[in-house]
Design a protein that fits this description.
With about 230 residues, the protein is an all-alpha fold. It has twelve helices and no strands.
């Protein structure tokens, strides 16, 4: 799916006319958490007020504080990631029929596309500039979900440099595709992005790092080819 085709989550500036408790406390709590993830992902931690989150969930702000004692607690609960990579993701990373760069990028993008983790990761990435805990969570996510499962296959020479280069590429792709949501990176399919960008990541992870030159972007990687 192209990210640009998805409707943006609605984050109303004003409270809706109808508010109150939903059919049950569990469903209401989940609705608040879903709204919080959308608001934190669209506005960042500082601008995502409890009033905005309550409006997005269709409840009274006082009800939010019945479930979560503060905005801080709401944020920490809303952006809690799954404790382990999914079976599907692990299978994708260990599929040795494809090169390492393709496996890493494919698994990484599919995690961001998933309904279970996508909104949470976006909220963390947008908030990472002002919240050290969000930045730390993104780092742990990259290490535990993406790098660690394939660590044994990464070239031992300049390993930290390889990981740093790969991380910079992955975070940049995620920011443009899932936060900015504009341009060819948002419009392309996951498979198209893997085809175009995986060779660069594969070089970072396994290629010859003895020289000083960092490979340039694939010449085919331009707005026309990515957006097609």
């Amino acid at each position: 799916m192209k990210v640009a085709d998805r409707p943006h989550s609605s984050v109303p500036a004003h409270s809706p006319a109808k508010r109150g408790r939903r059919q049950g406390p569990t469903r209401t709590r989940e609705a608040v958490l879903d709204a919080a993830r959308r608001c934190f992902g669209k506005l960042g931690y500082e601008k995502a007020t409890l009033r905005r989150i309550a409006a997005a969930a269709g409840v009274d702000p006082a009800l939010v504080l019945q479930f979560f004692t503060s905005k801080e607690q709401l944020f920490r609960t809303a952006v809690r990631l799954p404790q382990a990579p999914s079976t599907l993701q692990v299978a994708g990373l260990t599929d040795t029929s494809r090169d390492l760069g393709s496996r890493v990028l494919h698994a990484y993008l599919h995690l961001w596309e998933s309904p279970d983790a996508g909104d949470t990761l976006t909220a963390l990435l947008v908030s990472a500039g002002t919240r050290p805990d969000a930045l730390q969570a993104i780092r742990h996510h990259l290490r535990d979900y993406t790098i660690q499962p394939v660590a044994a296959e990464i070239g031992l020479d300049a390993q930290q440099t390889r990981i740093a280069l790969t991380t910079s590429q992955l975070v940049g792709i995620a920011y443009v595709r899932y936060v900015m949501r504009t341009g060819p990176l948002a419009e392309a399919s996951v498979d198209h992005l893997v085809e175009l960008i995986a060779p660069i990541i594969n070089h970072y992870l396994t290629g010859d790092m003895s020289g000083q030159d960092v490979p340039a972007m694939n010449p085919a990687y331009n707005e026309k080819s990515v957006g097609s």
